[in-house]
Amino acid sequence: MATVEVISPRTIRAKRIFKDLTREELRELARPGEKTSEYGSPVYATRVKNRSAKNTYVVGNGAPIGVMQQPIERDRAEETIREVQETLAGMELLQVDRRMGMSPEVPIHCRLYVPKDYARIAFMWHNMLFPSDSSKEPDFISVYVPDWKERLIFLDVDQGYTYILGTDYPAEAKKSMLRQAMYWIKRRGGLGLHAGSKVLRVIGPDGELRDVGFLLFGLSGTGKTTLTLHDHGLKEPERAIIKQDDVVLMTPEGEAFGTEDGFYIKTEGLEPSQTVLWGAATHPTAVYENIKLDDSGKVDFLDTSITSNGRGVVLRKYIKGTGEGIDLEKANKIVFITRRNDVVPVCARLTDEQAAAYFMLGESIETSAGDPTKAGQAKREVGTNPFIVGPEAEEGNRLLQIFRKNPEMEAYILNTGSVGASDGFPGEKVSIRVSTEIMKQIAKEGIGWEKDSDWGYEVPVNVPGVDLAKYDPKTYYTPEKYRELVDRLRGERRQWLGQFPGLDPAIPRAIEK
Fold it and tell me: Which CATH fold would you assign to the domain 333-509?
């Protein structure tokens, strides 16, 4: 094989590169690996069935990396790129160009290179974003080589590239572009957020109809997707308008630009009663991976024998309750969804500094679905975002700056777990109805608040339609036990926040009384 001189990590040469293929042409190329469902939608199987976070690295000697990120030496990255380019020179590739976002203020052009034999990856990713002009220079490129000799993913945010090697999991393409975009907006004074977005159009206390923009943060198992897609029982002229379910790009002014045209849904347990998603999930334009299909094409979303991480890409326009746009003019309400079971209240309203602290905590507990051996243990991820590049403290500091610049923005904790758990008692469960009603009343400004003496945030004293007496943590414990649990949780939080050098001191102080 002839040696190929490395011109640039972003310069890809191949035996042949197919460009500007339509959705239909990509599906046809992926046909050999397709099984067709009863709905006419394609179903594919992948060798790798999850993201390879432990094999993902940030190229060093460039942008500083964070505490939770793994570096790879630039020399090793460049040597690997040289080998990859030599391999690609003898292959047929697909080049897919797509645009991230709809706003002219977020003109992000993404380009994906995939071997022709893996057209299904290109096809699925094509459905995630918007049309773009392939003649333009891309902002970001990602290069897939699924049959590489080792599993290795590395990215350079300064040069805007990601190499995805040794895995055929399609979400690596999706996340590679979103990761780059989140860093892109951070360099422009904003912040990339791993959050769902929606608008609640409600009648306010003045009797006027108002649009209230929400961003919803939450780790897996907290109910973030459920709350993002919920209609809150609103009736015309009130309504819920779904914007995005994964990543938004926030400006210093509190605008939140959407990124995607397709939602990457988890299929486990999907059934007709989930009316918001079901229509899109059973539309012929849906694309699935690793779901159970019998010989006749009948789909069984309840069967997780292949994997509990079955996935699908569904188009926004077929999801009930989506509007035409994907952007929030203003993120009026920021909601950090957590799933705790003891002393965290059902809801709390935060100061700016507390908002930055709870963003940094990214807090929940492990579920049996996630890791049965750690079920019930605390689980934390800065910004509930595993795709941060750069020092984590920058993220919390930037969010605090945005809040201080936009005093009309408010932040909340929403506990979707339970309250008051102890030995032999799982706690008083917070139902979906309670969580959605609280969000609706936040939008309507229908909640009365008082300061909590232990944490300094505000807790509700009345929420229309919700019996708050059941959700007062102090009523489930003796004063001594309650103090023990509060002190233990505060200690865990102090330890977590202490990991991040450069964090504004006002942020860790905010978890004290």
Answer: Phosphoenolpyruvate Carboxykinase; domain 3 (3.90.228)
